[in-house]
Amino acid sequence: xxxxxxxxxxxxxxxxxxxxxxxxxxxxxxxxxxxxxxxxxxxxxxxxxxxxx
Length: 53
What we know:
This protein is α+β, with helices and mostly antiparallel strands. Helices cover 42% and strands 15% of the residues. A two-stranded parallel sheet has the order 1-2. Helix 2 links the parallel strand 1 and strand 2.
């Protein structure tokens, strides 16, 4: 799945993978994606905004 997404999305930019379980990050990290751990309080959304600027 990760490789398929990589081929479709990565043109001239980067990919940010957000998940609520850090154990799911390994394939994304192996492909060079940035990762962000989400949390129940929604604080991760502020971090996404910072990364998109």
